[in-house]
Amino acid sequence: MSDTPHLLTQTEMLSLLQKGVGFWNEWRAEDLKLLECIPEEDLSKYLALNLIEVNLSGANLKRVNFRQVDLSWADLSGADLSEAKLYKANLSGANLSGANLSNANLNGANLTAAILQDANLNGANLSRTDLSEFDFSQAILHKVNFIKTNLSKANFRNANLRQCKFTHANLEAADFHQADMSGVKLGRAKLVRANLSELNLTGLNLSRADLNAANLSQTNLTAANLSGANLYETKVSGAKFNKANLSNIILQATDINEADLSGAKWKNSQLWGFNFSEFNLNGINFSGTNLRQANFRKANLIGADFSNANLQSANFQEANLLGADLSRANLQDADFLGANILGADLSSARLSGAIMPNGTRYK
User: May I ask the CATH class of domain 270-363?
Assistant: First the structure.
């Protein structure tokens, strides 16, 4: 046999497949290189390949180039499609149960109504595919690329998602209950109404993610990056934000008093009207944050950084502001009645109309 095998035409490929999976697998064992690494200029021979409803159950299709091939309703159960090129392939209704799709390129493939139960998807590229409402419960999806994928209402309960990439993905109303999210990338993901409760998201990147009305109850977000994230109406009861980056976020949650906010970084965030009454916010960084009309009554704010923050009409009654930095802050009409401001830095702060600890109003 020549070291440089000829490329199969569409007719030749169909002829081989029609002889059955046994013949195909035997042929593949001898001429494995025939379907690998097909040059771009020869792809035209495959673009119109029609394999609708073909039975390739258990076939050796490793590294086969099925780019833009129509495999709708094909039986690919138990097939070896590892490292296969399935870019924009039509796999609608295909049976891929138990198939080996590890490191396969499924970018832009049509997987509508496809069966993926027990399929090996480790390292697969599923970016830009539509997998809305898919059931991935208990699946092992290690290092899968879900960038810009539509996964709305997908079920990831108890799934292994270690090091998966969900950047820019649509995960609206997706359920991640008890999933392993170690090393997952969720930056700019749409997580509106998603269930992320009770998960360990320590140190994960959720920057600019849309978490509107998502469930983060009891979730561990220690040292996570949530900068620029939308947390409007997000459930955060019992969540741990210790040392998390919450700068430039939008937050409106009614149960924040039950969350652990120690050491969180809130620089330039929008927290207008928030109730921090009796919170322990020792050393917290609110630099540049909009806290207009926020309630800090009886809060522990020792060493807190409020520099350049908007605290107009904020309530600091009986709060402990020992050594706090309030420099350049807008404190107009703020109420410090009974507060401890010993050692606080008020340099260049705007204090017109503010009520001082002794009850006098600053003019």
Answer: mainly beta
